[in-house]
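Figure 2 data, in text form.
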Amino acid sequence: MDKPHTTDPAPTLVIIRGNSGSGKTTAAREVRRRYGRGAALLEQDYLRRTMLREHDSTHIDPVAPTFITATARTALDLGYHVILEGILHTERYAAVLHQLIDNHPGPAAVFYLDVSIDETIRRHLKRDEPIPVTADEMRRWYTHRDLLNVPGETIIPEPHTLEQTVTTILHSSGLTSATPRTPCPRRCRHCARKADTSPAAATTS
């Protein structure tokens, strides 16, 4: 019978924010792909739109901010490194995100993709997965440098390529050297057969 690991350091929390079309979802997915098993990817749009079918509005006393951060906290408590991405407007999410970070006993890294409105629209129009949103809607949603203002928040500038962004997130967050905390990569025979056990290596199965 496997004994619980009680002396391991707490998992890593990574928060990636930015306006719609800034590239945060693509970057977050690539960070998780390179890390492999043991990291949970939480996408704001999926949790809010698909799971809750809730509009992103202050007029309805939204459930999504609490639901999303509670989901992140649960994954962290279960030993997963967490990569949380989304617009996560400070107007609705600042309080719960600050609480999530403050109450997390392990390392936390926050990134903001600082991309201009014109560039976000250009990237939006080139999405591999088209979203039925107009340029005018994106302009209404756009918030300039909506920073979370936590210590160590990393601003990733518009000229950064996807490769530069992903590399910055992996290294600055510490995920490059963070080992998995969850049972599958630790004790699964399938995972044990993999030749490359580096935490930054991609696992596609």
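Caption note: Residues 64-77 form the longest helix (14 residues).
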